[in-house]
Amino acid sequence: MLLKNLALLASQASHIHGLPRLSRRADPPFAVVSSSDGQNQLKTVDAPVQHLELAWLPGHLTHVLLQGAGNANGASTWNLTLDDSTAGHLQTISGGFGAAITDATVQTFNSLPADTLTTLLNDLFSADGLGFTLMRHTIGSSDLSAKEYTYDDASSPDPDLTNFGLTDNGNAMAKLIASIRSVQSSLTLLGSVWSPPGWMKLNGVIDGTTGNNNLSPAYYDAWTQYFIKYINAFNQAGANVDAITLQNEPLNSQSGYPTMYLDSTNATMLIQDHVGPALAQNNLKTKVWAYDHNTDQPNYPQAVLDGAGQYVDTVAWHCYATNNDWGVLTNFKNSNPGVTQYMTECWTSTTTSWNQAADFTMGPLQNFAAGAMAWTLGSDTNEGPHLAGGCTTCRGLVTIDTSAGTYTPQIDYYMMGQFSKYMEKGSTVLAMTGSYDYGNGKVEAVASLNGDGTRVVVVENTFPNEVYLTLTTKGGETWSGSLYKESVTTWVLPPASS
Predict the structure, then answer these.
(1) What is the pLDDT of residues 328-348, one digit of tens each?
(2) pLDDT in tens, 376-430
(3) Quick check: 408 and 401 in contact, CB under 8 A?
(4) Which end of the chain is more exposed for a tag (fewer CB within 10 A), N or C?
């Protein structure tokens, strides 16, 4: 232990007697911050320092206390504890982080010059960029489309799907996703439907009325084969589909953009008797995830798991419930220990707070989610293209100036990067205590253990002032450092001492 501490002391020597600072940013410990005022955008700042009791300096044994508790320089202080022992291992971040690929994303991205698009995809998906590994795409049109369409818009019922085709929009989406996969080989892709073809529904339309906005029993088999054809077409295009949800927000029946009401009873039946068996019969590895809606109706995914658990072991959640409570995911995990959970949609906008993306990533991770995604990845400078209904102010993580052929990362891009760049896909979330929300300010934290043993601690400080943080680990280590005002800070710590 003493020898390890001596080595660490040497690496931190710049904090005593003015010795040169370590230059290799990638060597832990290091810290990165993004803040509400735009002064910090994934910016490297002073690393946290460890409190060491005894250290050997040339010529004598001395007592050293490295810049820790008692050196807050008048700043507010906060304490967190981290259980980095085996007992503190929680869920695996099996998906990672990312956003939705909508028609708005595809259209705006494809307006960029080829070299600029290549740079953007590297910024978003490569290991040197944000490292996104979890993406969701729209099957057919959504509210973030320039027009409404599905993959079989026949003028009359087409139960044999003879008119099935991805359309120009679908082909463009599959091509972009294939390009993304060439940058990020570990991508997990979820496909979600906003509406089946109108002829499959009791009301006969994709959009326009909420009456009889349901799938017709006459077309259960056709709807199943629609999924099979879509998955095969995307797979053949190099845009392999890892999972699907039967319906985006199945309890949300609206006019103005494509929607469909699908209750838990019918969702369970469709998965158990139709879609699940068809995927197996066609030797497709694509999984079915349940629900894809808000946290206020956990009975819905529970019913699907109870009735179609043979084919479903994953639940997708959104953030839009009134007084949204991510603790629902912990309760759900306690009732279903084997379930995997994801936060699959939460919007970003000019009207959402600076820490919107941090909140919808932090909260689910603190409650057993295996990943989180924003809505949406890209938009133009007018929050579009979009339909007249649905979300007309959804802003992408990056906005594209389609006239100039340039892109601009928004604050939500940097907030998500505080997690995605450092919490690796496959890492393990670690138990923490000390997070608290006072209502007018909070410090929230989540931590993970990477495969190489490094520990990642992401801390959100919403107070309008600097906070001096002290972190104590189960293994007996103590680390301390500053949290910038209204910011998200990521500490990457070396493997635990033993």
Answers:
(1) 999 999 999 999 999 999 999
(2) 999 999 999 999 999 999 999 999 999 999 999 999 999 999 999 999 999 999 9
(3) yes
(4) C
491 has which bridge partners? 31, 457
Q: CB count, 10 Å around CB of 264?
A: 20
Distance of alpha carbon 369 from alpha carbon 383, whole angstroms: 28
Residues 383, 261, 275, 268: is their CA dihedral positive or negative?
positive
For residue 176, which of 80, 98, 109, 275 has the smallest C-alpha distance? Answer: 109
Model confidence band, residue 232 (pLDDT cutoffs 50, 70, 90): very high
Nearest-angstrom CA–CA distance, 33 and 40: 6
Of 345, 424, 460, 486, the active-site residue reads: 345
What pLDDT is attached to residue 71?
74
Mapping DSSP to helix (H, G, I), strand (E, B) and coil, where does residue 468 land?
A: strand
Dump strand ranges (E) for 188-255: 188-193, 243-245
Q: Would you say 138 and 170 are in contact if contact means Cβ atoms under 8 Å apart?
A: no
Q: What is the dihedral of CA 405, 408, 412, 418, to 10 degrees?
A: 110
Catalytically annotated residue among 53, 148, 249, 477: 249
Tokens representing residue 294 in the block: 């808000």
Q: Are the CB atoms for 78 and 472 separated by under 8 Å?
A: no
- 162-166: long-range contacts at Cβ-Cβ below 8 A with a sequence spacing of 24 or more? 164/226, 164/229, 166/230, 166/233, 166/234
**Which residues pair with residue 244 across a beta bridge?**
191, 288
To the query of whether residue 249 is one of the catalytic residues in this protein, the response is yes
| pTM score of the predicted model | 0.93
pLDDT digits (tens, 9 = 90+) for 11-44: 443 333 332 232 234 699 999 999 999 999 999 9
Cβ–Cβ < 8 Å for 99, 377: yes
Reply yes or no on whether 345 is catalytic. yes
Which amino acid belongs to residue 308?
Answer: A
The answer to whether 344 and 368 have CB atoms below 8 angstroms apart is no
- Asked if residues 75 and 467 have their Cβ atoms less than 8 Å apart, the reply is yes
Q: Which of 444, 422, 420, 450 is nearest to 432 (CA)?
A: 444
